[in-house]
Amino acid sequence: MFRSIGKFQWYPVRGSEGDDVTGVVIGQGTDPAFATAFLKAASHLAADVGKPTPSSYHYFAIPALYCFRHALELMLKAVLREVDAVLTACPAPENEPAPPATDPAILGSHSLFALERELTKKLQHHGYDYLVDRHRAIIKRIHDIDPGGMSLRYGIDKKGQLLLPTGWEVQIMEVEAAVTEVFEQLNLIYWVLQGYSLSNPIGHRQMWSY
Fold first, then answer.
1. How far apart are CA 92 and CA 200, in angstroms?
2. Shortest CA distance to 182 belongs to which of 128, 143, 146, 131?
3. CA 149 to CA 111: how far, in whole Å?
């Protein structure tokens, strides 16, 4: 079921030749890659949820929502780490003080709202706020359904109370469209920062835009 193949730099071929594998290989990934994987998994689940059925209940609805939410959480954290690595580490030409590196408590939290607020503060400080109010509203709406990142994981809390609000209808395809829109924008910001850090490690006022 599981076996170690040791360290690897790229994913081996899936086949029957010498160094091929017959299963799938895990262990070489970053937060953006994991985030994309959760988004794709959510989309697969949402496609099944969206099919007409006699009952409004669907086993995949909660896993789909969890994967959408987790994809956003991972991408927000990835962009925050990149902002810290690129912008916070490099003083501006005017020598204006940069915000301190993100508090580990925020990076370690599951609060989409806290992560978005921290990211917005830093992007606005550096003049690279490529998020818009619609993006922030979508993040806040997903946050409100599951503020602590637990309501889509467990049915009840430690006190035996229901975690999810009852009596809610979810238009899963609308959720997919909204989350994908925000995710793609966050991903774009991430790669803008990546491009900057690789091409111009100082003087971040010259960062190229899009």
1. 13
2. 131
3. 7
Quick: pLDDT tens for 154-172: 999 889 988 887 788 999 9
Euclidean distance between CA atoms 40 and 68, whole angstroms: 9
What distances in angstroms separate CA 152 from CA 8, 68, 85, 111, 147, one per listed residue?
34, 11, 31, 13, 10
Residue with tokens 């916070």: 88
Q: What is the mean pLDDT of each run of 10 residues along the chain (210 residues)?
A: 84 82 83 94 97 93 97 96 82 67 94 96 86 96 94 91 86 97 95 71 46
Give the C-alpha separation, 6 to 140, whole Å: 41
3-state secondary structure the chain: CCCCCCCCCCCCCECCCCCCECCCCCCCCCHHHHHHHHHHHHHHHHHHHCCCCCCCCCCCHHHHHHHHHHHHHHHHHHHHHHHHHHHHCCCCCCCCCCCCCCCHHHHCCCCHHHHHHHHHHHHHHHCCCCCCHHHHHHHHHHHHHCCCCCCCCCCECCCCCECCCCCCCCCHHHHHHHHHHHHHHHHHHHHHHHHHHHHCCCCHHHCCCC
CB 98 within 8 A of CB 128: no
**What pLDDT, in 10s, does the model give residues 74-114?**
999 999 999 988 877 665 556 567 778 899 999 999 999 99
Structure-token pair, residue 18: 């010498």
Amino acid at 210: Y
